[in-house]
Specification:
Elements: E1 3-13, E2 19-27, E3 33-39, E4 42-46, H1 57-69, E5 74-80, H2 91-106, H3 113-123, H4 125-130, E6 135-139, E7 144-147, E8 155-159, H5 168-174, H6 185-195, E9 205-206, H7 209-215, H8 219-228, E10 235-236, E11 243-247, H9 250-254
Parallel strand pairs: 1-9, 4-5
Antiparallel strand pairs: 1-2, 2-6, 3-5, 6-7, 8-11, 10-11
Helix pairs in contact: 1-2, 2-3
């Protein structure tokens, strides 16, 4: 499943080159489909041809799992994409998480949750979250997770503009400065509202919105168009450029 970030605050720059964040993840119903079968070696094909290679995070997940367990053998992996790539929706990370879960079963490895979380964290913070999904608070680099009360029966509209750039995540993080950092208060307030079953959408925020609309050409036009069409709050997911807004129901979302 894809994910959005209901809140994403950058707290500080770490000595290891990463950033501490405070975020609230939420999975949505948009999903890729993946087929797994046993094989002599690991192979991967994808409906999006540019992702049919060893740089695919699902392939890396399979390779890491095999190395970690000294498993003799491989797997045939076939991915049918529905989650647009490089949109801040965690499509590649979700595929990697699904690969760890599926191959742990297919290969009869019987790894525990802590082992899968360790492997997922080595692949990316979003991968660790997407092992579980749901409504979840993420701290540290995003892989220190705390399950929250689930947000249910909400409709949203996703906009996935073709405004991609090379090394997107690296460029967005490199463009941050300390004036854009925060202390996580907005995320805490949103978390409190979720835990009280109120989910105050006015508390949603994303630190990358301070720079994304300058980096992604035309993104501001798309956001304004969504607002003019009736959206109350439009936010960036992850580092973007995917945008989302909650709506009252399917009928309103289709308008």
């Amino acid at each position: 499943y894809a994910k959005i970030n209901l809140s994403l605050e950058i707290i500080r720059h770490r000595q290891d080159g990463y950033h501490d964040i405070s975020t609230i993840y939420q999975t949505v119903s948009l999903a890729d489909t993946i087929y797994f079968d046993k094989a002599d070696v690991i192979s991967l094909t994808c409906s999006q041809i540019s992702l049919s290679n060893k740089n695919n995070l699902a392939y890396k997940a399979a390779t890491l799992l095999k190395q970690f367990t000294n498993y003799i053998g491989g797997a045939k992996i076939e991915i049918t994409k529905a989650i647009p790539a490089s949109m801040g929706l965690g499509g590649g990370s979700s595929d990697a998480a699904a690969t760890l879960i599926a191959l742990n079963q297919l290969w009869n490895l019987d790894l525990k949750s802590k082992d899968l979380h360790y492997l997922a964290s080595n692949l990316g913070a979003d991968v660790a979250y997407l092992l579980y999904g749901g409504t979840t608070l993420g701290k540290g680099i995003g892989n220190n997770l705390r399950e929250l009360k689930p947000i249910k029966n909400k409709w949203l509209v996703l906009s996935c503009p073709e405004t991609g750039i090379e090394n997107k995540t690296q460029q967005l993080y490199s463009a941050l400065n300390y004036q854009m950092f925060s202390n996580g208060d907005s995320t805490r307030r949103l978390m409190d509202s979720i835990e009280k079953n109120s989910f105050d959408q006015k508390l949603m925020t994303n630190s990358f919105e301070q720079i994304a609309f300058d980096i992604f050409t035309g993104l501001d036009i798309i956001k304004n168009s969504m607002i003019q069409s009736g959206a109350s709050y439009v936010h960036l997911s992850g580092t973007g450029p995917g945008l989302f807004t909650f709506v009252q129901g399917k009928e309103q979302g289709m308008k």
